[in-house]
Write a structure and sequence with these properties.
14 helices; eight-stranded mixed sheet; 16% strand; alpha/beta; 2 domains
Length: 389
């Protein structure tokens, strides 16, 4: 082999460093977090559960109702939706059927913002009765112990926010199974690495637990109502104030809504493009986390049994171990084994989406194309000025 061949083989081995780091980070995270997360029997401050709603999610009523069945002494649930939203009468039904639960429904945000979900959160946080917020998306379903569990980290005044892992309630088709295995084997694996290297400085929209003072400390949700990835920003802005952000091993459920492969590609390419535009060098560095294309390149450059065994075999072993540690051992999920053959398919798709993200300078949000300028969404086609032709 020439020096070039050896050089390519050496570079192709870099993803294994990432895989080893993902494995060790996952083990450390779950061992440490399980010790810290004890049953909460003595810390139950009053809580405002805030739900900005737009549209009718699949199984929405059961999602909403799960928050009405909490084993928690004092909490309210506050929804905000436009009066013509199909979810509006569903929340009214919820109020009738759970008369002992403190539920309020706010009509519209009263604001004009690109990210209308965040506009609703501006009103929700302003009108919340209590100073501890639990913010969740409309597609989230939880168990009766949820509030006691996610509130527990806030007993430490150094903790300014907490967030949770999440899985699908069920997968109805191959696309949803592909998304599910991608989250467990890829997304949450990278989350473990981030926790290990730099700590958690973000939150997931499936659960954001925080205090009013932490939100007011960064200027409130008005600061991020014209930004993408508002859930990530919500955690980052809390962390920038010096607070700790906790990632809890508690797993909530999210109802999958990928009806087609096109839906999956559309959402993932948008997220990949947001990552590239917001963290360009970090996004470039992702090239060294894609083990499959590097393993295939190594075999193509030196097609021997030993190279194939080392690179393709090593890739397969690492990916199975990571998936088992995150999904089975860590998140206690069943049915992971039957989805393992989907991992290389997901990895190939993720790599192609990463390449495709470099061809885009805009993202599409609710049918409109936007640039991202210093983290702000800017319409790619400016709206005409009043009175102009």
């Amino acid at each position: 082999m020439t020096a070039l061949h050896y050089g390519i083989l050496a570079v192709a081995a870099i993803p294994f460093i990432y895989y080893v780091l993902a494995i060790s980070s996952t083990v450390r995270y779950f061992l440490q977090s399980r010790k810290e997360l004890r049953p909460n029997t003595d810390f139950t401050p009053p809580v405002s559960c805030l739900k900005p709603i737009k549209g009718l999610d699949i199984e929405a009523y059961e999602n909403y109702a799960s928050f009405c069945r909490q084993d928690y002494p004092n909490y309210e649930i506050v929804f905000c939706a436009d009066p013509d939203d199909p979810a509006f009468p569903l929340v009214e039904k919820l109020i009738r059927e759970f008369p002992d639960c403190n539920i309020r429904l706010l009509s519209g945000s009263g604001r004009n913002a690109i990210n209308d979900k965040v506009a609703r959160l501006v009103r929700l946080t302003a009108e919340a009765k209590y100073d501890i917020f639990v913010i969740t998306d409309g597609d989230v379903r939880v168990g009766p112990e949820y509030l006691r569990t996610v509130i527990s980290p806030l007993r430490d005044p150094k903790v300014g926010a907490a967030t949770c892992l999440y899985v699908s309630t069920k997968e109805n088709n191959l696309v949803e199974e592909l998304q599910s295995i991608g989250m467990i084997s890829d997304f949450f694996a990278s989350t473990m690495v981030a926790w290990n290297l730099d700590g958690i400085k973000f939150t997931f929209g499936q659960t954001i637990v925080t205090r009013r003072e932490s939100v007011q400390g960064y200027g409130g949700y008005t600061v991020i109502e014209n930004r993408p990835a508002d859930d990530v920003y919500a955690g980052r802005l809390v962390a920038e104030q010096g607070y700790e952000v906790k990632l809890l091993p508690y797993v909530v459920q999210s109802v999958a809504d990928f009806h087609s492969f096109k839906d999956l590609l559309h959402k993932r390419i948008r997220w990949m493009t947001v990552q590239r535009l917001m963290r360009p060098w970090g996004h470039v560095g992702l090239i060294f986390t894609f083990g499959l294309p590097w393993a295939l390149l190594a075999v193509a450059m030196h097609p021997t049994m030993w190279v194939a065994l080392a690179y393709l075999g090593g890739y397969a072993l690492c990916r199975v171990v990571i998936t088992w540690l995150v999904g089975v051992w860590g998140m206690k999920q069943h049915g992971i084994w039957k989805k393992l053959p989907l991992i290389p398919i997901w990895d190939a798709i993720a790599f192609l989406l990463w390449i495709g993200s470099f061809a885009r300078n805009t993202i599409r949000w609710r049918g409109v194309d936007y640039f991202i300028r210093e983290g702000i969404l800017v319409p790619a086609v400016p709206s005409p000025r009043p009175g102009s032709d």
